[in-house]
Amino acid sequence: MTEPSGKIVARPMVVRACGHQQEFQHYAVDKYRAQRLAKFQRTRCAECIAKLAEEQRRAAAALPKKGEALKLLPPGTQMSLTRRPDGSWAGVLAADGTSVETVGAVDGGPQSVLVALARLWASESAKGSAGSMG
Questions:
Q1: Using alpha carbons only, what angle is made at residue 36 by residues 5 and 54, rounded to the nearest 5 degrees?
Q2: pTM as predicted
């Protein structure tokens, strides 16, 4: 579906998925107007996309890197991995009195679950130690 060209006959304000109103252009000849409008309504505006990307970048930067996350685990850490019927991997990690569990994506491997568990444990144990310092 290509972007139409030609004379713009209307510019109604339409609410996007993020809740902001933006101008949507109606062209004189546009056989895909209904599809374009539906896509326009279910997507976010450029400003909200940029804000979401920045939030995700900050959240990713706050997480320890793969190798660092695994090195943070104390001696005696126990991990258990299980292959589920849908092909995904699930895991449980227990260390220093904190237990976490997660399920990986269907197309992900067991290594991704191990790293996710280590990162989750690091964030959970940091919350627990920050809460006990008060």
A1: 105
A2: 0.55
- Summarize pLDDT for 60-106 with one digit per residue, the tens: 777 778 788 888 899 999 999 999 999 999 999 999 998 999 999 88
pLDDT tens figures, 3-41: 777 899 999 999 999 999 999 999 999 999 999 999 999
Indicate the length of the chain as a whole number. Answer: 134
3-state SS, the chain, equals: CCCCCCCEEECCEEECCCCCEEECCEECCCCCHHHHHHHHHHCCCHHHHHHHHHHHHHHHHHCCCHHHHHHCCCCCCEEEEEECCCCCEEEEEEECCEEEEEECCCCCCHHHHHHHHHHHHHHHHHHHHHHHCC
Closest Cα to residue 99, out of 78, 115, 84, 81? 78
Checking 63-66 for CB contacts under 8 A at 24+ apart, the result is 63/119, 63/123, 64/118, 64/119, 64/122, 66/115
> Rounded distance, CA 84 to CA 88, Å?
5
